[in-house]
Amino acid sequence: MIRHSPTFALFVVATIGTAVQADTPSRITDHGEYRLPRTNDLALRSKAGRDYRLLISSPEGEPPEAGFPVLYVLDANSCFGTVVEAQRLQVRRGQTTGITPAVIVGIGYPGDGPFDPGRRTYDLTTPGEAGKLPRRPDGSPWPASGGADEFLDFIENEVKPLVESRVQIDRSRQAIFGHSFGGLFVLHAMFNRPEAFHSYIAASPSVWWNDFALQKAEERFAKRCAQSPVRLRLRVTTGELEKNSGPTARLAPTAASTGFGSTEDMAMRLQKLADRGVRVEFHEYPGENHGSVLPVALNHGLRFALTSETRDGPKRE
């Protein structure tokens, strides 16, 4: 008669149990597509008859007495989720990060693609002349341009009132973020309507557009500030690997490009307006190109928009 120890018996039971578990399929429940918590996805047709996708993420809890700060993000299809999750993570450690709860508003276009080249070219640019634009990489003609003022009117007169009807907003703490053409639009808005926002974040702005025509708006802005001080903050960023690449590399030097200089040169000029209420930061991200720089610029732009003003000032990081 063969006798087995209690240890052997337990081993056999455990082995059989493991085999049974291996034959039992995992339980899977499909809840459908993932959605960002506390986020509304709205379809909005502008008064001009253009269709937009508006994404609004609201913080938990009651708003402060003055209301929540708000960050408007352009090209929302490409980056809204990134900035919302970055804000949610950092606001949990607000005493360390300095980031306060805020409303994030993404302005994008119908569909799930990250970009709509035709729509964004029109919305985010001033009028462009064929002879003053670089050849596109695929050789195709440039889409229609020149809708920046119309788009800014849309934000000011249609988007902002809609957001304020849904969430209590602190109008003194409104920021806007844009990358590439979006960065160009951010600068255009600041130069022409500085009262529209309190904080402006221009990541890798397409300052080359229409042979650096932005410089004329910059000059008008400087004269305006000399006559009447403003109160605003600007953060300008670029990627190290953007130098001598992209559209600027395909453009022949002109008097305008030489006069404007680089994006950093522009930021340094604007820093001279510090005594007129313009607070400027510039940062170049090492090892980043025009596309890879976006998530990094978003994260730091979030801090710039949603932390105390005592943390910033005219500087180059």
Automatic annotation (TrEMBL):
Keywords: Hydrolase. InterPro entries: AB_hydrolase_fold, Esterase-like, Siderophore_Hydrolase_D. GO terms for molecular function: hydrolase activity, acting on ester bonds. Belongs to the esterase D family. Pfam families: Esterase. This is Ferri-bacillibactin esterase BesA. The keyword Protein transport does not apply.
